[in-house]
TrEMBL record:
Origin species: Rudanella paleaurantiibacter
Cofactor binding annotation: Binds 2 magnesium ions per subunit.
Keywords assigned: Isomerase, Magnesium, Metal-binding
Protein name: Beta-phosphoglucomutase
Binding of substrate, residues: 8-10, 24, 43-48, 51, 75, 115-119, 146
Site (Important for catalytic activity and assists the phosphoryl transfer reaction to Asp8 by balancing charge and orienting the reacting groups): 115, 146
Source species, domain of life: Bacteria
Molecular functions per Gene Ontology: beta-phosphoglucomutase activity; magnesium ion binding; sugar-phosphatase activity
Enzyme class: isomerase
PANTHER family: FRUCTOSE-1-PHOSPHATE PHOSPHATASE (PTHR43481), GLYCEROL-1-PHOSPHATE PHOSPHOHYDROLASE 1-RELATED (PTHR43481:SF4)
EC number(s) reported in the record: 5.4.2.6
Cofactor section: Mg(2+)
Amino acid sequence: PISAFLFDLDGVIVDTAVFHYQAWRRMANELGFDISHEFNETLKGVSRMDSLDLILAHGGVTLTDERKLELATQKNDWYLELVSRMTPNDILPGVAGFFHQLKHAQPPLKTALGSVSKNARLILERIHMVDQFDAIIDGTKITRGKPDPEVFLNGAAELGVAPADCVVFEDAVAGVEAAKRAGMFAVGIGSPDVLTEADLVVPSLEHLTVTELLAAVER
Ligand code: B16
Ligand code: MG
């Protein structure tokens, strides 16, 4: 039976993608090129250094590893400036209600965060959600970003739950792929045209109840 829910952070709990985009764009502009909103989609769920490599390739820029580290640090400083202004008001619609339901589920459900972000815990602190999770797997605990399943397999292991008994909530193509490779049920948050590999897709957690979801998994 399903006994754990694993949540992605960016795009599921909060919309930090807009902050990542602003900070990466500022960096790209300083290097003399721009990145589009569409291009930003391809960075979702991708680790910081892998994102930087994709952006530099996109702009046709080649740099030394030392310079790349400098730029990644600069981008993260700009990003953290934006994150520091976050409050519980930044929690996405439907999240609070969904957590309220799952805390009352019978048999009980365990929860984990599965994010590749090194800033995930800080963000959870800003939005007062640290204590909502039985386990927090973030970028400091993994070596491979999504679509590698490591982040979700670690989450299941830390909770002591079999991967087949986990449901993952993901907004990114790479994240859905990671969930499927981990052998888990994947709920896509977004558009079915984009999240084609998900087992079920809803526009946001506002459009899903825990009871409905558990019934859908059993089918
Ligand atoms: P950081 P998630 C991911 O978070 C973001 O989607 C991705 O855009 C970002 O590059 C990555 O975290 C690393 O973040 O620079 O804060 O370590 O979707 O896995 O929650
Ligand atoms: Mg995400």
